[in-house]
Amino acid sequence: MLTNRQSLILKAIVEDFIQSAEPVGSKTLMTKYDLPYSSATIRNEMMYLEERGLLEKTHTSSGRVPSTLGYRYYVENLMNVELNDHERYELQTVFRDERGSMDDVIQKSCDVLSHMTSLTSIVLGPDAKNQRLQHIKLFPVDDHTAVAVFITSQGHTENKTFHFDDSVSVDDITNCCNILNDRLVGTQLSEVVDKMNEIKPILANQVKRHEALFNAFIQAFRRFASDHMYYSGATNMLYQPEFADIEKLRNVMRMLEDEQLVREIARRGQSTLLRAGNKSELIWVDDMAVVSTSFRVNDTEEGKLMVVGPSRMNYDRVTSMLDFIGEILEQKYYKK
Predict the structure, then answer these.
(1) Are 101 and 152 in contact (CB under 8 A)?
(2) One domain, residues 67 and 110
(3) pLDDT tens-digit profile of 81-119?
(4) How far apart are the first and last CA of the chain?
(5) What separation in angstroms does the CA of 152 have from each of 58, 130, 188, 192, 224?
(6) Gyration radius from the chain CA atoms
(7) d(CA 63, CA 53)
(8) Burial class (CB in 10 A: 0-12, 13-18, 19+), 245
(9) For the chain, what is the domain count?
(10) Mean pLDDT across the chain, nearest whole number?
């Protein structure tokens, strides 16, 4: 453990670098943070912190920047994970009258996180495979177009727009939808495709273009039963000085677009994770930091909120927001 003086200096360096993205020197610490130590004392302590691997010296300045180990120490021991009253009120107001579907609220959470942190946010929605189909609603648009809305027992929704040629009418889609409601309501989503194969002969007897409709509905159910991922603020990476290098930015954007990689990061074992807040966890990937928190929607399912940014991110603010929004989502959907 560090002494109080060493901790105070490290905390000031981390927080100043988060704001400025510039190496921090002893004069900055003395004048900006009014530390009650001499310049020589601060320099000696900075050298000690560098020897311990908590700070690094850049080639272009006599100042220091936090290392990954320094960020780790800061997150574990020095940061304050608490929103101020204004931020708490603002977030409560955003979600207070939200009455959309769970997917709408989760997407809104993603947008709010990216806007308030100026970073990239990702939300992995709850796995819908174990939920049951509650209803299919159909909304005709014109003679050959309709929108079907699939609703589960836990409030998940999936929209599917059907566009067909002249050989398929809205009446065909309506008949197909009615049969599916009669035969599939209450079926677990992971079993819907198999059950649809069982009722295919019924569709063939009662619907003219049953083959085209059957394939369209199968595709919609497969998407519905898959995990949901939401992105917001990917372009915020463009404004981070760490990613001014085009090749580095390309690598970051490729990672954000790789759904499998994002899910792998979210599922990494406890040995690679750093507990950051009440429920949030933190992991570093190359030059990026990923802070995440989970939220439960029922006894068996949960989603995950994630904020992705440079290692030089405002960890206390990001962590406190994630924890607070996660609590709001749990209160809204997890009825114990």
Answers:
(1) no
(2) no
(3) 778 888 888 888 877 766 666 777 888 888 999 998 999
(4) 41
(5) 55, 10, 9, 12, 10
(6) 26
(7) 15
(8) exposed
(9) 3
(10) 82
